[in-house]
Write a structure and sequence with these properties.
3 helices; Immunoglobulin-like; seven-stranded antiparallel β-sheet; elongated; single chain; about 30% strand
């Protein structure tokens, strides 16, 4: 029985250690997610990392249908609703396409590298709770759509190690249950 308690304690410690690391978030930006929606077929991506209370990011937007003008983190708001601007992502950095078929694209990123980029942003506990709850979104604007060309809700990415630990715990619980049933 002591061995089983030790294993459970080690799993709990591993989960706690994982919780203190960097949390990852992602967003898929589309015109159909805008409020009101638009028919732009462009799909952008956002990757976010929360380390302690500092939020860093990289947002990438193909620039073959429009030229991004600005980018913002906004919220709190659920999909289908608008929220106020929380942070300006700074000016976009443009990258040309190549002869292999990759289109031109723009990036918004941190840390700031003047005159481009922004952040990382220092978040309050309330802002972290909103972010973890999926209440923030990325909004990219253009000259044609100054209120928003593309939008994507920022959602947590499940940590593979946490999922592995939970799976290991489930297997361990199943083994322990079988042993106690047989005894």
């Amino acid at each position: 029985m002591k061995r089983h308690l030790l294993i459970l304690a080690l799993l709990a410690c591993a989960l706690q250690a994982q919780a203190q690391g960097t949390m990852q978030f992602q967003a898929t930006l589309t015109g159909s997610a805008e409020v009101p929606p638009n028919s732009d077929p462009t799909i952008g991506t956002g990757a976010f990392g929360l380390s302690g209370s500092l939020l860093s990011f990289v947002v990438t937007v193909p620039s073959d249908n429009f030229i991004p003008m600005s980018g913002y983190l906004q919220g709190p708001a659920l999909p289908g609703a608008n929220g106020p601007i929380l942070f300006d992502l700074g000016g976009p950095t443009f990258h040309s396409g190549n002869s292999f078929g990759s289109p031109p694209f723009a990036t918004f990123f941190s840390p700031a590298a003047p005159p481009l980029g922004a952040g990382p942003f220092l978040l309050t506990d309330a802002q972290i709770a909103q972010l973890e709850s999926g209440l923030w979104y990325v909004n990219i604007t253009s000259a044609a759509n100054p209120d928003g060309q593309l939008r994507g809700q920022i959602l947590p990415v499940p940590e593979p190690s946490v999922l592995a630990l939970l799976g290991s715990g489930a297997v361990l619980a199943s083994v322990l249950r079988r042993r106690f049933r047989q005894a």
